[in-house]
Amino acid sequence: MKIVHLCLSNFYIDNFGYQENIIPKYNKKEGHDVTIIASRFSYNIKNGENTKVQAGSYFTSYGIKVIRIDYKYKWLGKINDKIKIYKETYKLLEKEKPDIIFNHGMQFLDLLEVARYIKDNPECLLYVDNHAANINSGTNILSRQILHKKMYKWVINKSLPYIKKIFAIAPGCKEFAKEMYGIPDEKIEYLFLGADTDKINLINKAHARKKIREELNIDDKDFLFITGGKLSKGKNISQLLEAFRKIDNKDIKIIIFGVFSDDIKKELLTKIESDNRIIYIGWLKGEDVYSYYLASDAAIFPGTKSALWEQAICCGLPLICKKWTGMEYVDVGGNCIFLDNDEENSIIESIKQLHGNPKMYKEMKKVAETTGYNTFSYEKISRQAIFVE
Predict the structure, then answer these.
(1) Which of 318, 315, 309 shows the shortest CA–CA distance to 361?
(2) Taken in order 375, 132, 12, 111, is the CA torsion positive or negative?
(3) What are phi and psi of 250, to 5 degrees?
(4) Is the pLDDT of residue 355 over 90?
(5) Fewer CB within 10 Å: C terminus or N terminus of the chain?
(6) Residue-range domains of the chain with CATH
(7) Over the stretch 41-55, which tens digit does the pLDDT of each residue have?
């Protein structure tokens, strides 16, 4: 089939391990003709900030065509970033002639153009997902009452008759869609984020563990945590580092990968340099993240939600993470320890609890390796994304 993925509600970042990268990859792998139509929004790994790339078309390393398009009304300036009306969305869909459209995110005015295409071409199926939740959207009165409860609600409800299914990537996203936009419960199903299981080489896990630990001068008996990603203030890496420095155990170490945002970079690099148990390795390519996960014993994410949580679980890692309402689904049967607050003492206690209880650790790891792997595999999720009845 011809499948078009629309990434116009937010960013599309080339060569990342996000949903909008990996679901198209698996669609292509299974023989479908896949195109991605995306905004110009991307991410600069040098400074950890959002950026814009040129409009135009090109192919990914998987042979998927990407078409980057610009806003229609440039004179609107930054208002465009909220309303998101693009050049020739309808005409591009006419040219691509999709059998299925998968729309990543639904908070943009051009959803009306997508719905118009479905109205004119009723044989095409439209699936839409929602990543918005109370922790990342509608966080001030203007955004909540005007953008979401008025403008986006109007656009979504006007488009709703032409949408086959709305996917919520987490329970919090489902509740947000119902509360903000009045979407009926029967229209929503879950489609969790996941991991690119092609990249998880469990057969060579021992080799990856040995190789990476030797490169980083980490002993095999050391208990190794890992964290990373786009490291902004909300990820609470500062609290994690302070907690780690207060743990008097030379056998507990941590790998940090990713890019710090400029506002915290200097402070955190200074903290990292003061403790040789903390190993900062900079930015990792998406496929390399999995190897470092396989070399680790547990993952820890004390701040805002990241797609890296599901990837860590799929690699068989017990997870220590911040507890967010609606995000408890990452615990699939005992693989997680949730942090109820941002306090250093909570982080310290959780690290000691996991490290000091081998039986508990073994049980958590088993759940991640079995139920976790099956739940968050993008190979399975990619099929669910386009064939739900």
Answers:
(1) 318
(2) positive
(3) -70, -10
(4) yes
(5) C
(6) 2-191 (3.40.50.2000), 197-375 (3.40.50.2000)
(7) 998 877 778 899 999
